[in-house]
Write a structure and sequence with these properties.
Layout: H1 5-23, H2 28-46, H3 54-67, H4 73-99, H5 104-131, H6 136-158, H7 163-184, H8 191-214, H9 219-239
Helix pairs in contact: 1-2, 1-3, 1-4, 2-3, 3-4, 3-5, 4-5, 5-6, 5-8, 6-7, 7-8, 8-9
Length: 245
């Protein structure tokens, strides 16, 4: 089942919330508070555990922040449409897991939307960092914390019975991103390019860990994934616009 009325209803509210920010940006903080309440209600109604509201809340706030960094109306509308669809998939996956915790389709939906949420956060966070005088150590701490939260949330879906192992692997992922945040601070790239690069690095580590937890780890697949995404990073670095120092 790929349609759920309550998930669609909450996604529709989220859609209109983003539209309000586009036309009335001065209402950002009021809308943010309203979205937080809606996400909490949605998680309480749809999700298999109430703490699940944290991940879609970060997703929503990151998307709302990223809207301020888009200066083209058509691009804003495309972004709102895609973001609202992913928001719907988030809660659809949560609803399916509520019915059956081992639902592979639901796990796939939540994996895809969690990665999308991290991209939104990485990009929005770096956009804020480039426009405001925020100390780098704060950025490293926040990126590590959010990465740990997203990682722990998804890894527990794979192997809920081994929370200690999920905590350990989530910590490894967060530390890896912390190192990358420190490194990309010296790269002259914009927020979208930086967001994509951080997400690729995260995905490389995340793919190895999730395959290990699922018992599907192979060196051949790991080498192929590493080479593929190294090539993609090279293309991004070659084609992206460099910022002036």
């Amino acid at each position: 089942m790929f349609f759920h009325l309550f998930s669609f209803f909450y996604a529709l509210i989220y859609f209109f919330a983003l539209e309000i920010i586009v036309f009335y940006p001065h209402c950002f903080f009021y809308v943010s508070g309203g979205v937080a309440f809606i996400v909490w209600l949605a998680a309480k109604k749809v999700a298999y555990r109430k703490s699940s509201f944290l991940v879609p809340l970060i997703f929503a706030w990151s998307a709302m922040t990223l809207l301020f960094l888009i200066d083209n109306f058509q691009q804003e509308q495309i972004f709102i449409g895609i973001s609202s669809f992913l928001f719907y998939l988030f809660f659809l996956g949560m609803y399916r897991l509520k019915s059956y915790l081992k639902d592979k389709t639901a796990q796939g939906l939540l994996a895809a939307t969690s990665l999308a949420g991290l991209f939104l956060f990485y990009s929005a966070g770096w956009g804020i960092y480039l426009n405001f005088l925020i100390p780098l150590w704060i950025m490293i701490l926040v990126y590590s914390l959010i990465t740990f939260l997203f990682s722990y949330y998804y890894l527990c879906l794979i192997d809920w019975g081994k929370k200690r192992k999920c905590v350990l692997f989530s910590l490894i992922l967060s530390l890896g991103i912390a190192e990358m945040v420190w490194g990309v601070n010296f790269w002259p790239f914009g927020y979208l390019s930086t967001g994509v690069i951080l997400l690729i690095i995260y995905f490389l580590l995340w793919d190895i860990i999730q395959n290990f937890l699922k018992g599907e780890f192979t060196y051949k697949r790991t080498y192929f994934t590493f080479l593929l995404f190294t090539f993609l990073i090279g293309i991004i670095l070659y084609t992206t616009k460099w910022l002036p120092f």
